[in-house]
Amino acid sequence: MIEQLRSEDKKRFGIGLRTARELGGRKVTEALGVELDRLSPERRPLLLLAVADRSDSSVLPIVENVAKSGSNELRITAINILIDLGDVSCVPILLDAATEGDSKLEKAAIETLVRLPGKDVDSDLLARLLQAKGKLRQVLIELAGQRQISNARPAVVSSLEDSDAGIRGAAVRTISIIGQDHEAGDLVKLLEKTKNSSERADIRKALLAISGRCGAKCIPHLKPLTQSRDNELHIIGLRALAIIGGPEALAAIKSAIETAEPSVQDEAVRILSNWPYNWPDDSEAGQALLKLAKSAKKMQHQVLGVRGYLQYIRGNKKFSNENKVAKVKDMLSHIKRSEEKQQAIAVLGEAPSASSLELLTDLADDPAVVEEAYSAMVRIAAKDIQGVSKDRRREVLQTVVEKSRNNGTKQRARKALRGIR
Asked: Is pTM beyond 0.90 here?
């Protein structure tokens, strides 16, 4: 076997690798470990992979030893092998590689540490985190997040204000993964103290992640932001509340629209126009949007109110088709731009009824949206709808065939006409 591994002939070397995998015995494994140091650099990774496929207890020490020293290529191969072969005994070796300063080694070592199985690995990493400093502490904090070691939260929180920027950043990223509602409060306090724009952006991301995960329990912790005189912090608080949804969050958004600084008002209107409707009580957002659409002082706010309200109508499963058409009709006098008229047509096209056909026929008089209206009319008239006679459907479809300038719409109308019997 050793002769085959040393052969210059590639085929004989391949035979040696196969034999290295198949020939049993601890002494064989130990001999292969010795041979690793004698082979050319380009062959060592191949033999190491063959050794890793063996099943006796002396394999792991060989792989660990290679992971400690040698060429980076060979060490990375050994580190990757430890994903499947390793256990808690490998942690010190991997942490050394992860903090050595070589980016490729660090990446490989951290990936292996993230994937290394066992609760004992979590316990080992946590114990080290409590004592670690510098680069090692940063790496351990990152690992606590990626392995989702929830017991590490106190240690990570204590690092949020560390003097080392790398440790602070790692702590924020990890809290975004394992943090709960109480950590939202810690992030809010940190936001209030932090002036660095990049760090604020990272904290904001973490706060939004926790808010989305923990929901309404975060609302009390967010109140200092919505009461802040710092407009940026106020907006961050409003965005977090929008992710949560519900009556308390909605009330804060409405309050900001009425009383906040102009830049915060603008953002609050944008947030309201994209309200997520996570709660049953969020239907109140529809009324707030309707109020904006009809009476907002800024044209921009009116437009966003119209858009948000039409989206609210479109997505509300409690409304009947007739309800939707009636609400769109009530809004039409407040819709000035073709973009919002197109949105109204989209709502009507998904609410098939006699009244939606009539309203679409009226909208087709506007040259700016005529083709969108025709397309929606075909969509409705092509179906057998209660309250719409076959003659009326034919009339609508024939109108589209005669007047539409869109060949695709015309073809769909003709096809629908042929289908009415």
From this structure: no
